[in-house]
């Protein structure tokens, strides 16, 4: 059981782990062991996720999310499989925790009078600079 929050946890059966050979440090040992971990979680088909959380997860523009709604996390930071496995699971937990609370609605505000005046002053300054460029001096 992977605990996300007090109210949400994922059963192990929903996580698919695949082990593969990692590049990077490790010498000859890295060529013989499968220390990298690829963790797959079916966001679209998970019965454990509430509908709102699932919708927010699928709405994210994340390159780790496939078109079928599968979240794929690759962990190859460490040299041993156990630490990479824990790292992948921690990253999955962080991704899901990030969408647990709905984003705050933006409150529309009007620009202040000072900000309008600063904007107009900047436009006038820019206009004066451009005006000085347009007149060619007369050489006679």
UniProtKB/TrEMBL annotation:
<feature type="compositionally biased region" description="Basic residues">
    <location>
        <begin position="125"/>
        <end position="134"/>
    </location>
</feature>
<comment type="similarity">
    <text>Belongs to the prokaryotic/mitochondrial release factor family.</text>
</comment>
<dbReference type="GO" id="GO:0003747">
    <property type="term" value="F:translation release factor activity"/>
</dbReference>
<dbReference type="InterPro" id="IPR000352">
    <property type="entry name" value="Pep_chain_release_fac_I"/>
</dbReference>
<dbReference type="GO" id="GO:0043022">
    <property type="term" value="F:ribosome binding"/>
</dbReference>
<dbReference type="Pfam" id="PF00472">
    <property type="entry name" value="RF-1"/>
</dbReference>
<feature type="region of interest" description="Disordered">
    <location>
        <begin position="103"/>
        <end position="140"/>
    </location>
</feature>
<dbReference type="GO" id="GO:0072344">
    <property type="term" value="P:rescue of stalled ribosome"/>
</dbReference>
<dbReference type="GO" id="GO:0004045">
    <property type="term" value="F:peptidyl-tRNA hydrolase activity"/>
</dbReference>
<protein>
    <submittedName>
        <fullName>Protein chain release factor B</fullName>
    </submittedName>
</protein>
<feature type="domain" description="Prokaryotic-type class I peptide chain release factors">
    <location>
        <begin position="21"/>
        <end position="37"/>
    </location>
</feature>
<dbReference type="InterPro" id="IPR045853">
    <property type="entry name" value="Pep_chain_release_fac_I_sf"/>
</dbReference>
